[in-house]
Protein backbone atom coordinates (compact mmCIF):
# COMPACT_ATOMS: atom_id res chain seq x y z
CA UNK A 1 0.00 0.00 0.00
CA UNK A 2 1.50 3.45 -0.98
CA UNK A 3 2.57 5.70 1.89
CA UNK A 4 1.64 9.41 2.12
CA UNK A 5 4.65 11.78 2.61
CA UNK A 6 4.52 15.58 3.40
CA UNK A 7 7.39 17.67 1.93
CA UNK A 8 9.29 20.00 4.32
CA UNK A 9 8.78 23.79 3.61
CA UNK A 10 11.91 25.43 2.23
CA UNK A 11 13.57 27.93 4.62
CA UNK A 12 13.20 30.94 2.28
CA UNK A 13 9.57 30.45 2.03
CA UNK A 14 9.31 30.03 5.72
CA UNK A 15 10.91 33.41 6.38
CA UNK A 16 8.80 35.23 3.84
CA UNK A 17 5.68 33.95 5.26
CA UNK A 18 6.56 34.41 8.87
CA UNK A 19 3.85 36.23 10.67
CA UNK A 20 1.56 36.15 7.66
CA UNK A 21 -1.52 34.07 7.61
CA UNK A 22 -1.51 31.20 5.22
CA UNK A 23 -4.30 31.49 2.77
CA UNK A 24 -3.94 28.21 0.84
CA UNK A 25 -3.50 24.70 1.96
CA UNK A 26 -0.11 23.08 1.85
CA UNK A 27 0.40 20.78 -1.10
CA UNK A 28 0.82 17.06 -0.31
CA UNK A 29 2.69 14.78 -2.76
CA UNK A 30 1.87 11.09 -3.01
CA UNK A 31 4.85 8.71 -3.47
CA UNK A 32 4.30 4.95 -4.22
CA UNK A 33 7.04 2.50 -3.07
CA UNK A 34 7.15 -0.66 -5.22
CA UNK A 35 8.77 -4.02 -4.21
CA UNK A 36 11.88 -5.08 -6.14
CA UNK A 37 11.18 -6.90 -9.41
CA UNK A 38 11.74 -10.78 -9.50
CA UNK A 39 14.57 -12.09 -11.71
CA UNK A 40 12.87 -14.88 -13.84
CA UNK A 41 15.75 -16.96 -15.39
CA UNK A 42 14.45 -19.74 -17.77
CA UNK A 43 14.65 -23.10 -15.80
CA UNK A 44 14.63 -25.19 -18.98
CA UNK A 45 18.08 -23.82 -19.75
CA UNK A 46 19.39 -25.69 -16.64
CA UNK A 47 17.23 -28.91 -16.85
CA UNK A 48 18.09 -29.81 -20.44
CA UNK A 49 21.88 -30.16 -19.88
CA UNK A 50 21.18 -32.16 -16.72
CA UNK A 51 19.02 -34.66 -18.55
CA UNK A 52 21.50 -34.91 -21.40
CA UNK A 53 24.29 -35.55 -18.93
CA UNK A 54 22.22 -38.13 -17.08
CA UNK A 55 21.50 -39.94 -20.34
CA UNK A 56 25.20 -39.98 -21.26
CA UNK A 57 26.10 -41.38 -17.83
CA UNK A 58 23.35 -44.00 -18.07
CA UNK A 59 24.47 -45.02 -21.53
CA UNK A 60 28.11 -45.50 -20.60
CA UNK A 61 27.69 -46.85 -17.07
CA UNK A 62 24.22 -48.43 -16.69
CA UNK A 63 23.31 -49.69 -20.15
CA UNK A 64 23.12 -53.44 -20.56
CA UNK A 65 21.49 -56.14 -22.63
CA UNK A 66 19.93 -59.35 -21.32
CA UNK A 67 19.47 -61.96 -24.01
CA UNK A 68 17.65 -65.27 -23.46
CA UNK A 69 18.60 -67.99 -25.90
CA UNK A 70 16.75 -71.26 -26.49
CA UNK A 71 19.15 -73.60 -28.30
CA UNK A 72 17.92 -76.29 -30.64
CA UNK A 73 17.32 -79.48 -28.60
CA UNK A 74 16.05 -83.05 -28.92
CA UNK A 75 15.17 -85.88 -26.55
CA UNK A 76 17.07 -89.15 -26.82
CA UNK A 77 16.06 -92.43 -25.11
CA UNK A 78 18.11 -95.60 -25.62
CA UNK A 79 18.43 -99.20 -24.45
CA UNK A 80 21.74 -101.04 -24.30
CA UNK A 81 23.45 -103.96 -22.56
CA UNK A 82 26.42 -103.36 -20.26
CA UNK A 83 28.67 -105.98 -18.64
CA UNK A 84 29.97 -105.55 -15.10
CA UNK A 85 33.01 -107.79 -14.69
CA UNK A 86 35.63 -108.29 -12.01
CA UNK A 87 38.04 -109.34 -14.77
CA UNK A 88 38.57 -105.76 -16.04
CA UNK A 89 40.26 -102.86 -14.25
CA UNK A 90 39.16 -99.85 -16.31
CA UNK A 91 35.95 -99.00 -18.20
CA UNK A 92 35.84 -99.75 -21.91
CA UNK A 93 32.76 -98.04 -23.25
CA UNK A 94 33.50 -99.19 -26.78
CA UNK A 95 33.25 -102.81 -25.63
CA UNK A 96 30.42 -101.89 -23.28
CA UNK A 97 32.09 -103.20 -20.15
CA UNK A 98 32.96 -101.64 -16.78
CA UNK A 99 34.87 -103.00 -13.76
CA UNK A 100 33.01 -104.75 -10.96
CA UNK A 101 33.96 -105.81 -7.44
CA UNK A 102 32.57 -108.99 -5.87
CA UNK A 103 31.89 -108.93 -2.13
CA UNK A 104 31.19 -112.14 -0.15
CA UNK A 105 30.02 -113.07 3.34
CA UNK A 106 29.45 -116.46 5.02
CA UNK A 107 27.17 -117.14 7.94
CA UNK A 108 26.08 -120.11 10.10
CA UNK A 109 22.71 -119.55 11.70
CA UNK A 110 20.41 -121.81 13.72
CA UNK A 111 17.09 -121.79 15.54
CA UNK A 112 14.46 -123.83 17.35
CA UNK A 113 11.15 -124.44 15.62
CA UNK A 114 7.73 -125.83 16.58
CA UNK A 115 6.29 -128.84 14.76
CA UNK A 116 3.03 -127.96 13.04
CA UNK A 117 2.14 -131.40 11.73
CA UNK A 118 -0.49 -133.39 13.61
CA UNK A 119 -0.89 -137.14 13.96
CA UNK A 120 -3.83 -139.00 15.52
CA UNK A 121 -2.67 -141.84 17.78
CA UNK A 122 -5.28 -144.58 18.22
CA UNK A 123 -4.54 -147.63 20.29
CA UNK A 124 -6.97 -150.31 21.51
CA UNK A 125 -6.78 -151.56 25.06
CA UNK A 126 -5.64 -155.17 25.54
CA UNK A 127 -5.92 -157.63 28.38
CA UNK A 128 -6.45 -161.25 29.47
CA UNK A 129 -9.88 -162.60 30.33
CA UNK A 130 -10.29 -165.94 32.07
CA UNK A 131 -13.35 -167.57 30.56
CA UNK A 132 -15.15 -170.11 32.73
CA UNK A 133 -17.28 -172.95 31.28
CA UNK A 134 -19.76 -174.44 33.75
CA UNK A 135 -21.73 -176.05 30.97
CA UNK A 136 -21.81 -179.83 30.40
CA UNK A 137 -19.87 -179.65 27.14
CA UNK A 138 -16.88 -177.87 25.75
CA UNK A 139 -17.41 -174.44 24.18
CA UNK A 140 -15.58 -173.27 21.07
CA UNK A 141 -15.09 -169.51 20.70
CA UNK A 142 -14.01 -168.39 17.26
CA UNK A 143 -11.64 -165.43 16.72
CA UNK A 144 -13.33 -162.05 17.23
CA UNK A 145 -15.87 -163.50 19.65
CA UNK A 146 -17.35 -160.54 21.53
CA UNK A 147 -17.24 -160.20 25.30
CA UNK A 148 -19.21 -157.41 26.97
CA UNK A 149 -18.30 -155.49 30.13
CA UNK A 150 -20.74 -153.50 32.32
CA UNK A 151 -21.22 -149.89 31.16
CA UNK A 152 -20.25 -148.43 34.55
CA UNK A 153 -16.73 -149.77 34.10
CA UNK A 154 -16.02 -147.22 31.32
CA UNK A 155 -14.73 -143.85 32.53
CA UNK A 156 -15.55 -141.45 30.99
CA UNK A 157 -18.78 -142.92 29.72
CA UNK A 158 -19.04 -144.31 26.24
CA UNK A 159 -20.51 -142.08 23.57
CA UNK A 160 -22.68 -142.83 20.57
CA UNK A 161 -21.06 -145.39 18.33
CA UNK A 162 -18.82 -146.83 21.05
CA UNK A 163 -19.63 -150.31 22.31
CA UNK A 164 -18.59 -151.93 25.64
CA UNK A 165 -17.07 -154.88 23.79
CA UNK A 166 -13.79 -156.72 23.63
CA UNK A 167 -12.93 -159.41 21.04
CA UNK A 168 -10.91 -162.56 21.23
CA UNK A 169 -7.75 -162.60 19.15
CA UNK A 170 -7.67 -166.30 18.21
CA UNK A 171 -9.98 -169.30 18.20
CA UNK A 172 -10.11 -171.02 21.56
CA UNK A 173 -11.91 -174.03 23.15
CA UNK A 174 -13.15 -173.72 26.70
CA UNK A 175 -13.31 -177.20 28.36
CA UNK A 176 -16.44 -178.21 30.20
CA UNK A 177 -16.20 -177.51 33.90
CA UNK A 178 -12.95 -175.70 33.21
CA UNK A 179 -11.58 -172.36 32.01
CA UNK A 180 -9.12 -170.81 29.62
CA UNK A 181 -7.18 -167.53 29.67
CA UNK A 182 -7.90 -165.67 26.45
CA UNK A 183 -6.27 -162.49 25.05
CA UNK A 184 -8.82 -159.88 24.00
CA UNK A 185 -8.66 -156.45 22.34
CA UNK A 186 -11.11 -153.58 22.82
CA UNK A 187 -13.64 -152.98 20.06
CA UNK A 188 -12.63 -149.25 19.83
CA UNK A 189 -9.59 -147.16 20.70
CA UNK A 190 -9.29 -144.78 23.64
CA UNK A 191 -8.24 -144.52 27.26
CA UNK A 192 -11.80 -145.29 28.47
CA UNK A 193 -11.30 -148.96 27.51
CA UNK A 194 -8.52 -149.28 30.08
CA UNK A 195 -11.06 -150.63 32.51
CA UNK A 196 -10.37 -152.08 35.92
CA UNK A 197 -11.21 -155.68 37.04
CA UNK A 198 -14.57 -156.70 35.64
CA UNK A 199 -16.85 -159.60 34.69
CA UNK A 200 -17.79 -160.25 31.05
CA UNK A 201 -20.74 -161.86 29.30
CA UNK A 202 -20.78 -163.36 25.81
CA UNK A 203 -23.56 -161.64 23.76
CA UNK A 204 -23.35 -164.33 21.11
CA UNK A 205 -24.69 -166.92 23.55
CA UNK A 206 -27.73 -164.86 24.53
CA UNK A 207 -30.94 -166.95 24.35
CA UNK A 208 -29.10 -170.24 24.91
CA UNK A 209 -28.51 -172.39 28.03
CA UNK A 210 -24.78 -171.58 27.80
CA UNK A 211 -25.34 -167.82 28.28
CA UNK A 212 -25.44 -168.00 32.08
CA UNK A 213 -23.00 -170.91 32.31
CA UNK A 214 -20.15 -169.44 30.32
CA UNK A 215 -18.68 -166.03 31.37
CA UNK A 216 -15.40 -164.30 31.86
CA UNK A 217 -13.43 -162.32 34.46
CA UNK A 218 -10.40 -160.08 34.01
CA UNK A 219 -7.49 -160.77 36.29
CA UNK A 220 -5.81 -157.36 35.87
CA UNK A 221 -6.56 -153.86 34.58
CA UNK A 222 -6.68 -153.43 30.82
CA UNK A 223 -3.92 -151.21 29.35
CA UNK A 224 -2.75 -149.63 26.10
CA UNK A 225 -5.94 -147.90 25.12
CA UNK A 226 -5.45 -144.31 23.91
CA UNK A 227 -6.76 -141.84 21.39
CA UNK A 228 -4.96 -138.51 21.07
CA UNK A 229 -3.42 -136.03 18.64
CA UNK A 230 0.32 -135.46 18.81
CA UNK A 231 2.74 -133.06 17.10
CA UNK A 232 4.69 -134.32 14.15
CA UNK A 233 7.42 -132.80 11.97
CA UNK A 234 6.20 -132.24 8.43
CA UNK A 235 8.13 -131.48 5.25
CA UNK A 236 6.69 -127.97 5.33
CA UNK A 237 8.13 -127.52 8.83
CA UNK A 238 11.63 -128.26 7.58
CA UNK A 239 11.20 -126.08 4.49
CA UNK A 240 9.85 -123.18 6.53
CA UNK A 241 12.67 -123.49 9.04
CA UNK A 242 15.22 -123.32 6.23
CA UNK A 243 13.51 -120.31 4.64
CA UNK A 244 13.28 -118.41 7.93
CA UNK A 245 16.94 -119.00 8.70
CA UNK A 246 17.87 -118.07 5.15
CA UNK A 247 15.99 -114.77 5.43
CA UNK A 248 17.71 -114.00 8.72
CA UNK A 249 21.08 -114.91 7.23
CA UNK A 250 20.48 -112.76 4.14
CA UNK A 251 19.58 -109.76 6.31
CA UNK A 252 22.71 -110.23 8.41
CA UNK A 253 24.92 -110.73 5.36
CA UNK A 254 23.47 -107.63 3.68
CA UNK A 255 24.29 -105.58 6.75
CA UNK A 256 27.80 -106.98 6.80
CA UNK A 257 28.36 -106.46 3.07
CA UNK A 258 26.88 -102.96 3.08
CA UNK A 259 29.51 -101.94 5.61
CA UNK A 260 32.23 -103.16 3.22
CA UNK A 261 30.95 -101.46 0.06
CA UNK A 262 32.48 -97.97 -0.47
CA UNK A 263 30.10 -95.02 -0.92
CA UNK A 264 31.10 -94.48 -4.57
CA UNK A 265 29.87 -97.98 -5.43
CA UNK A 266 26.39 -99.46 -5.58
CA UNK A 267 24.66 -102.75 -6.28
CA UNK A 268 21.28 -103.89 -7.50
CA UNK A 269 19.06 -105.79 -5.11
CA UNK A 270 18.57 -108.59 -7.64
CA UNK A 271 22.33 -109.09 -7.92
CA UNK A 272 22.51 -110.18 -4.29
CA UNK A 273 22.88 -113.99 -4.46
CA UNK A 274 22.75 -116.48 -1.59
CA UNK A 275 23.76 -120.15 -1.62
CA UNK A 276 22.99 -122.75 1.08
CA UNK A 277 26.20 -124.63 1.77
CA UNK A 278 24.83 -127.06 4.39
CA UNK A 279 21.59 -128.01 6.18
CA UNK A 280 21.76 -129.59 9.61
CA UNK A 281 18.58 -130.61 11.42
CA UNK A 282 17.91 -132.85 14.41
CA UNK A 283 14.84 -134.69 13.07
CA UNK A 284 13.35 -136.12 9.91
CA UNK A 285 9.90 -135.81 8.42
CA UNK A 286 7.40 -137.72 10.54
CA UNK A 287 9.27 -137.38 13.82
CA UNK A 288 6.79 -137.21 16.71
CA UNK A 289 8.24 -134.20 18.56
CA UNK A 290 6.88 -130.83 19.63
CA UNK A 291 10.07 -128.91 18.71
CA UNK A 292 13.19 -129.40 16.66
CA UNK A 293 16.46 -127.61 15.89
CA UNK A 294 17.61 -126.52 12.43
CA UNK A 295 20.91 -125.02 11.28
CA UNK A 296 22.16 -123.76 7.93
CA UNK A 297 25.49 -122.60 6.61
CA UNK A 298 25.16 -120.06 3.83
CA UNK A 299 27.20 -117.76 1.62
CA UNK A 300 26.05 -114.47 0.12
CA UNK A 301 27.73 -112.48 -2.64
CA UNK A 302 27.02 -109.31 -4.53
CA UNK A 303 28.58 -107.63 -7.58
CA UNK A 304 29.10 -103.87 -7.22
CA UNK A 305 30.08 -101.19 -9.71
CA UNK A 306 31.22 -97.58 -9.64
CA UNK A 307 28.37 -95.06 -9.89
CA UNK A 308 30.46 -92.67 -11.98
CA UNK A 309 31.41 -95.41 -14.45
CA UNK A 310 27.74 -96.23 -14.94
CA UNK A 311 26.73 -92.57 -15.41
CA UNK A 312 29.62 -91.90 -17.83
CA UNK A 313 28.66 -94.92 -19.93
CA UNK A 314 25.07 -93.66 -20.16
CA UNK A 315 26.21 -90.16 -21.15
CA UNK A 316 28.63 -91.50 -23.75
CA UNK A 317 25.86 -93.66 -25.16
CA UNK A 318 23.50 -90.69 -25.51
CA UNK A 319 26.11 -88.41 -27.06
CA UNK A 320 27.08 -91.12 -29.53
CA UNK A 321 23.52 -90.95 -30.94
CA UNK A 322 23.30 -87.13 -30.93
CA UNK A 323 24.44 -84.61 -33.56
CA UNK A 324 28.08 -83.69 -33.08
CA UNK A 325 28.65 -80.67 -30.89
CA UNK A 326 25.58 -81.14 -28.73
CA UNK A 327 25.59 -81.25 -24.95
CA UNK A 328 23.44 -83.02 -22.38
CA UNK A 329 20.94 -81.08 -20.32
CA UNK A 330 21.93 -82.54 -16.95
CA UNK A 331 18.59 -81.60 -15.39
CA UNK A 332 16.86 -83.97 -17.82
CA UNK A 333 19.37 -86.81 -17.55
CA UNK A 334 17.93 -90.11 -16.28
CA UNK A 335 19.58 -93.50 -16.22
CA UNK A 336 17.50 -96.58 -15.43
CA UNK A 337 19.15 -99.98 -15.29
CA UNK A 338 18.21 -103.49 -14.24
CA UNK A 339 19.71 -106.97 -14.25
CA UNK A 340 19.53 -108.77 -17.57
CA UNK A 341 21.51 -111.90 -16.60
CA UNK A 342 24.10 -113.21 -14.16
CA UNK A 343 26.85 -115.72 -14.93
CA UNK A 344 27.30 -117.81 -11.78
CA UNK A 345 30.64 -119.17 -13.03
CA UNK A 346 32.42 -115.99 -14.12
CA UNK A 347 30.30 -113.82 -11.78
CA UNK A 348 29.80 -111.37 -14.68
CA UNK A 349 26.70 -109.25 -14.36
CA UNK A 350 24.89 -108.11 -17.52
CA UNK A 351 22.72 -105.04 -17.07
CA UNK A 352 20.02 -103.57 -19.24
CA UNK A 353 20.80 -99.82 -19.31
CA UNK A 354 18.05 -97.37 -20.42
CA UNK A 355 19.36 -93.78 -20.38
CA UNK A 356 17.38 -90.77 -21.57
CA UNK A 357 18.15 -87.05 -21.74
CA UNK A 358 17.62 -83.82 -23.66
CA UNK A 359 20.61 -82.78 -25.79
CA UNK A 360 21.09 -79.27 -27.14
CA UNK A 361 23.40 -77.34 -29.44
CA UNK A 362 26.38 -75.85 -27.69
CA UNK A 363 26.64 -72.04 -27.75
CA UNK A 364 29.98 -70.16 -28.09
CA UNK A 365 29.23 -67.33 -25.71
CA UNK A 366 32.34 -65.26 -26.49
CA UNK A 367 31.80 -65.40 -30.25
CA UNK A 368 28.11 -64.63 -29.88
CA UNK A 369 28.75 -61.56 -27.71
CA UNK A 370 31.32 -60.24 -30.17
CA UNK A 371 28.83 -60.60 -33.00
CA UNK A 372 26.07 -58.80 -31.07
CA UNK A 373 28.12 -55.90 -29.67
CA UNK A 374 26.96 -52.52 -31.01
CA UNK A 375 24.11 -53.89 -33.15
CA UNK A 376 20.73 -52.23 -33.23
CA UNK A 377 17.81 -54.14 -31.78
CA UNK A 378 16.60 -55.13 -35.26
CA UNK A 379 20.11 -56.16 -36.38
CA UNK A 380 20.57 -58.22 -33.24
CA UNK A 381 17.31 -60.10 -33.84
CA UNK A 382 18.32 -60.85 -37.44
CA UNK A 383 21.78 -61.94 -36.29
CA UNK A 384 20.39 -64.38 -33.70
CA UNK A 385 17.78 -65.69 -36.12
CA UNK A 386 20.51 -66.65 -38.57
CA UNK A 387 22.40 -68.79 -36.02
CA UNK A 388 21.69 -72.48 -36.90
CA UNK A 389 22.14 -73.66 -33.32
CA UNK A 390 19.53 -71.26 -31.90
CA UNK A 391 15.82 -72.14 -31.85
CA UNK A 392 14.56 -68.75 -30.59
CA UNK A 393 15.75 -65.72 -28.59
CA UNK A 394 14.54 -62.81 -26.54
CA UNK A 395 16.35 -59.44 -26.11
CA UNK A 396 15.87 -56.99 -23.23
CA UNK A 397 17.69 -53.62 -23.22
CA UNK A 398 18.19 -51.31 -20.27
CA UNK A 399 17.54 -48.40 -19.77
CA UNK A 400 14.26 -48.63 -21.63
CA UNK A 401 15.17 -45.99 -24.24
CA UNK A 402 18.18 -48.00 -25.41
CA UNK A 403 17.95 -49.10 -29.06
CA UNK A 404 21.36 -50.75 -29.45
CA UNK A 405 23.30 -53.59 -27.88
CA UNK A 406 26.19 -52.20 -25.77
CA UNK A 407 29.58 -52.30 -27.50
CA UNK A 408 31.17 -53.55 -24.28
CA UNK A 409 30.73 -57.34 -24.26
CA UNK A 410 30.82 -57.35 -20.48
CA UNK A 411 27.48 -55.52 -20.51
CA UNK A 412 25.86 -58.29 -22.55
CA UNK A 413 24.36 -61.06 -20.42
CA UNK A 414 23.49 -64.29 -22.22
CA UNK A 415 21.07 -66.69 -20.50
CA UNK A 416 20.78 -70.22 -21.91
CA UNK A 417 17.21 -71.43 -21.60
CA UNK A 418 16.41 -75.15 -21.69
CA UNK A 419 12.80 -74.97 -20.53
Q: Which bin fits the share of residues in helices?
A: 10-25%
State the shape. Answer: rod-shaped
Query: What proportion of the residues form beta strands (DSSP E)?
Result: 35-45%
Helix count equals 6
Helices and strands: which structural class? alpha+beta
Uncertain parts: 1-31
Cα(first) to Cα(last) distance is 79 Å
Radius of gyration: 60 Å
Number of strands: 22
What is the averaged pLDDT score?
87
* Major sheet attributes: 8 strands, mixed
H/E series, N to C?
Answer: EHEHEEEEEEEEEEEEEHEEEHEEHHEE
Produce the secondary structure layout.
Elements: E1 3-5, H1 11-16, E2 29-31, H2 44-62, E3 64-71, E4 73-77, E5 80-85, E6 97-114, E7 117-133, E8 139-141, E9 146-148, E10 165-168, E11 172-174, E12 178-189, E13 199-200, E14 214-218, E15 226-232, H3 235-260, E16 265-266, E17 273-281, E18 291-306, H4 307-321, E19 326-342, E20 349-361, H5 365-372, H6 377-385, E21 390-398, E22 412-416
Parallel strand pairs: 3-22, 5-6
Antiparallel strand pairs: 1-2, 3-21, 4-20, 5-20, 6-18, 7-12, 7-14, 7-15, 8-11, 9-10, 10-12, 13-14, 16-18, 17-18, 19-20
Outline:
Helix content is 20%, strand content 41%. The protein contains 6 helices and 22 strands.
Could you walk me through the main structural features you see in this protein, from its secondary elements to its overall organization?
Among the domains are: 62-73 and 362-416, no CATH class; 119-230, no CATH class. It has 6 helices and 22 strands. It has helices at 11-16, 44-62, 235-260, 307-321, 365-372, 377-385; strands at residues 3-5, 29-31, 64-71, 73-77, 80-85, 97-114, 117-133, 139-141, 146-148, 165-168, 172-174, 178-189, 199-200, 214-218, 226-232, 265-266, 273-281, 291-306, 326-342, 349-361, 390-398, 412-416. Strands 4, 5, 6, 16, 17, 18, 19 and 20 form an 8-stranded mixed beta sheet that branches. Strands 7, 9, 10, 12, 13, 14 and 15 form a 7-stranded antiparallel beta sheet that branches.
Amino acid sequence: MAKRIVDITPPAFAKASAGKPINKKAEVKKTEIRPPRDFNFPKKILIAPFLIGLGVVAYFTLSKAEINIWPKAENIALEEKLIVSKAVKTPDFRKKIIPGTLFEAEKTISGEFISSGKKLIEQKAEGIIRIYNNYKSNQVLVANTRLQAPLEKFIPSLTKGEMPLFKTVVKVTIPSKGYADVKVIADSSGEKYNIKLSKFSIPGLAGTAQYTQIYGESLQEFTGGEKKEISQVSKDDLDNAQNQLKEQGIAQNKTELSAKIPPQSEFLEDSFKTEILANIFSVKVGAEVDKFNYQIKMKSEVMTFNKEDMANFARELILSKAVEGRKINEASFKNNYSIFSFNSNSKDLTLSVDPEAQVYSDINEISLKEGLAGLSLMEAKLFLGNQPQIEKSQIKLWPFWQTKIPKNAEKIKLQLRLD
